[in-house]
Amino acid sequence: MIIIIDEASAKLASFYYHDDSFKPQWKRAVEMTSASQELYDELQEKLPDEQQYELQEKLQEKLPDELWGKLYVALPADELINDFKKTTIQEHADNTAKANTGNLRIPKAPADCIWIVSNRQQKQIADSLSIASVGEPQCGTRYAVESLAELDIEYLERVRRRYNHIPWDIGETDRCLIRELSLSDLPALYELYDKPGMTDFVEPLYDYETELEYQKAYIENMYGFYEYGMWLVFLKETGKLIGRAGLEHNEMGYMIAPELWNQGYATEVCRFIIDYARENTDFEELYCRIDEKNTASVRLAKKLGFTNSGHVDEDIHASIYRKNIKNNEKH
């Protein structure tokens, strides 16, 4: 991630002063100006002519002169100048544009950047360049903060990902990785749902085109607005999709591939979700809707501390199991 920021905003951004991991990034980016000519010479050899100036020229065209000299850039902490020249240029040589902020030239595509804007003009410029932006409410950014002092690196990375339709990493357990769904996951999701027993107690997927449109809306509205939803579960060891689990408001749901039943995966993932809800939402309780014929899920719910509330969802003939999560310690 490359962070673009101006002098005024930098003085208000908390990570500039307080994030120890960010201070050397900022310092190193500024110091790189002395090496920019050498880097620029190398770029001329490696990047196609039509890509060398694309983003730079757009920025120069749109930015007022008084702002142009006041923009700064921060690079990730592990991108030392030598590594930057050796690896990053080659990695992006085929499809990258070049940004110039002051004297610093950076061979990265707009999707790699986030701009901390200080006014609506900067936000509009960022939009025209397809660069994610964040700022205070008066700047008009979709992701706004009351004060730039509230910003941290994790939040900026999440905004950059959301703007560029890159799924968020939610967390991990001992054996699993949990992240948001992307549209490229649909083929693997159909394979998962086609396994024996997977749709005994849950609805199957729609036909592909309908499911595609449904998931587009889900990503935009559920993930984008609430910042939670039904996520995907992958094996750490292989990266294989093995299930879905997550929250739809304060309802918890899960499904695990049948070849992994009775091996503790559902317990592991559901405990993560309960802890996530406790730490990241205002929910006082979670609930699950469970068909009483689904004896494995009934056992799991009781194991996790859910109790049968005595209520039934008549539409799907499922019992409602509830758990208070604010008065319970972390699992």
Task: Please describe the topology of this protein.
Elements: E1 2-6, H1 7-10, H2 14-18, H3 23-31, H4 36-46, H5 49-52, H6 54-62, H7 65-68, E2 71-74, H8 81-91, E3 99-101, E4 104-106, E5 113-116, H9 120-128, E6 132-134, H10 153-163, E7 169-172, E8 176-179, H11 186-193, H12 208-226, E9 230-235, E10 241-248, E11 251-256, H13 265-280, E12 285-290, H14 295-303, E13 307-313, E14 318-324
Parallel strand pairs: 1-5, 5-6
Antiparallel strand pairs: 1-2, 3-4, 7-8, 8-9, 9-10, 10-11, 12-14, 13-14
Keywords: Transferase
GO molecular function: acyltransferase activity, transferring groups other than amino-acyl groups
Domain N-acetyltransferase: 176-326
Q: Can you offer a commentary on this structure?
A:
- By secondary structure, this protein is of the alpha+beta class.
- The protein is 39% helix and 21% strand.
- The chain has a five-stranded antiparallel beta sheet with strand order 7-8-9-10-11, sandwiched between helices. Strands 2-1-5-6 form a four-stranded mixed beta sheet, sandwiched between helices. Strands 12-14-13 form a three-stranded antiparallel beta sheet, covered by helices on one side.
- Strand 3 (99-101) and strand 4 form a beta hairpin.
